[in-house]
Amino acid sequence: MEAWLRLTRLKGIGSRGVQKLLAAFGSPQAALDAPDSAWREAGVAVAPDDREPDISADLRWLEADNHHILTLEDSDYPSRLKAISLPPAVLYVHGDKSCLTHPQLAIVGSRHPTRGGLKTAESFSRHLAAHGLGMTSGLAIGIDGAVHEGALQAEGLTIAVAATGLDRVYPARHQSLARRIVEQGAIVSEFPIGTGPRAAHFPQRNRIISGLSLGALVVEAAVKSGSLITARYALEQGRELFATPGSIHNPLARGCHQLIKQGAKLVETADDILEEIGPQLSEFQLAPPPAEDKAAPETTEPSEAERQLLEAVEYEPTAIDTIIQRSGMSAEAVSSTLLIMELNGLIAAEKGGYYVRLT
User: Fold this and answer.
1) Do the Cβ atoms of 129 and 151 come closer than 8 Å?
2) In CATH, what is the architecture of 97-281?
3) How many CB atoms lie within 10 A of CB 197?
4) For every residue of 306-337, which 3-state class applies, written as one string?
5) Which H helix or E strand runs over 127?
6) Residue 259: CB partners within 8 Å, gap ≥ 6?
C-alpha cells in the first residue's frame, strides 16, 4: 500500500500520470524503482527531489477506527468504478467500505436550487433509499445536501464523494451531516490527507460520483453547471442518465432540458427511475420498502381562501405583489393565508418576498 500512496502523492502527475506509470512498469513499486530516464520514456517527468513524497499523514489517518485506504489491486475496490477509463488509483474511505459495491444512484444538481428543487431531490432520495438503493452525491450545499438528508431520513445508505482530503469536511457547515453519513454509509475521496478545496478537484471528483453508480439523476442545473460534468461522465461511462424537467422560465431548468434534448430520460417520479434501472438490480437483494405508516395524520383540505391563493402562485418564484393582484385579496389577508399554506406544505417561501407552489 505504501508504494501506491507514494505514487499518488507525486507532485504534478495526476491520475493520468499514475496511469501511464502503471501501464509502463506494471506496479507502483516497479515504477518507483525505475530511473528518471525510464519515466521520461513513459511520458512522465518528476523532479528527483520529489520522488520520495511524505505519506506519514495518510498512514496516521489510517490508524483511526473506520478509516480505510483501497487501491486498485484490493478486492474491496468497487468494480464499477474500477471499470471506468480513469479510475482513482487510491480511495480513502471513512465509514463502511463495503457499501461502495452496493447498487447506487447518483443525484446531483444546483448549489443554489429553488425550494421545489430541494424538495424533489430529498423526496426522490428518500423514496429510492427506502427501496434499497444507495444514494450518492457530492456533499455540497443545495441539491447534494438534500440527497444525503433524504437517504438518512429513510434510514438508507448514502455515499458522499469529497473533493478534499478526508481529514476535513467541505463545506464546513456540513460537519454534522458528514458524521451522520459515516454512520449510514461512507465518505470517499481520491485526494490525499491534507488536501484542501481546489476548484480543479470538483470536476475531477464528479467522475467518481457517476463511476460508483448505476445511473445519474440531475435535479435543477444551469447550462454551465458542474452537474452537467457529472452527466457527461455518466454518458461516457455507459450509465443511465435522468433529468427532471422544470419551467421554461427557470434558469436552473435549462441544463436539465438540454440533457433531455440530448437523450437523458425525463423523470417525473422516483418510480420512473426504478422502472428504468430495474433490470440492473436483479442480481442484488435489495431491502423491500418499509410499510406505509397507517397512523400518519390525515391531510387537511385547503380552505376556499387557500385554494384561491394557490391558483395565484406558480411553480416558479412568484412575487407577493403578483399574488395579491391575481387573487384580489387584501395584502393582510394574503400574508396571513400564505403563512398557513407554508405551514401546511402547500407553498414554500423564497428570498425577496417570492413564493413557490409545491402541490
Assistant:
1) yes
2) 3-Layer(aba) Sandwich (3.40)
3) 14
4) HHHHHHHCCCCCEEHHHHHHHHCCCHHHHHHH
5) helix 115-130
6) 218, 221, 228, 231, 241, 243
Q: Round to whole Å and give the CA distance between 166 and 76.
A: 19
Q: Which cell goes with 226?
A: 458542474
* 3-state SS assignment for residue 219: strand
pTM of the predicted model as reported, rounded to 2 decimal places: 0.85
Do the beta carbons of residue 123 and residue 154 sit within 8 Å? no
How far is it, in rounded angstroms, from Cα 36 to Cα 342? 66
304-357 — its CATH code? 1.10.10.10
Q: In the 8-state DSSP scheme, what is residue 99?
A: G
Judged by DSSP in three states, 68 sits in strand
Instruction: List the grid coordinates of 295.
Output: 397512523
Q: Phi and psi (nearest 5°) for 171?
A: -75, 155
For the segment 279-297, what is each residue's pLDDT rounded down to a tens digit?
A: 887 667 665 565 554 344 4
- What is residue 342's three-state secondary structure? helix
Instruction: Find all residues with CB under 8 Å of 70, minimum gap 6, and list them.
Output: 76, 77, 90, 91, 93, 97, 100
What pLDDT is attached to residue 283?
65
The DSSP call for residue 116 is H
Q: Which of 87, 70, 216 is closest to 143 using CA atoms?
A: 216
The three-point CA angle 165-168-174 to 5° equals 125
Per residue in 29-56, is it b (16+ CB within 10 Å) or e — as a string? eebbebeeeebeebebebeeeeeebebe
Cα separations (Å) of 261 from 245, 256, 266, 292?
Answer: 11, 9, 9, 36
- For 7-45, write each residue's pLDDT tens digit: 999 988 888 999 999 999 999 999 999 999 999 999 998
Cβ atoms of 20 and 44 closer than 8 Å: yes
